Amino acid sequence: xxxxxxxxxxxxxxxxxxxxxxxxxxxxxxxxxxxxxxxxxxxxxxxxxxxxxxxxxxxxxxxxxxxxxxxxxxxxxxxxxxxxxxxxxxxxxxxxxxxxxxxxxxxxxxxxxxxxxxxxxxxxxxxxxxxxxxxxxxxxxxxxxxxxxxxxxxx
Length: 155
Prior knowledge:
The chain is an alpha+beta fold. The protein contains three helices and seven strands; from the N terminus they run αββββαβαββ.
């Protein structure tokens, strides 16, 4: 039987990617007590790199938002893996930190990371609203446009 959040994903027509493996010397997530820390997720879809580029140079805000949304889908996939498939154990998305590969004069990082933030609220409702940082980065791994990490309270 699918849980409440799985049913919500189906209702929204959202498919999750496979939870990816770490790309370097770290683990995709760590659970300590009731906190789940999810390492920075880049816009990979089942191992395929998507959304390479730099905001303010060769990528527009809407494409950057789509990249951030893909990162958030990967966060949810990692949470599902960490919680043995039971996303109903998510109590609250506490914080997202978003990094935007952007030119020095680009100042719309918050608009880009909204792609991740809005998805969390769509999927988890009030429990998906969170504190957040959205910062610029000179470059990101694999040349991707966005990376997002998360802290989630779990039962």
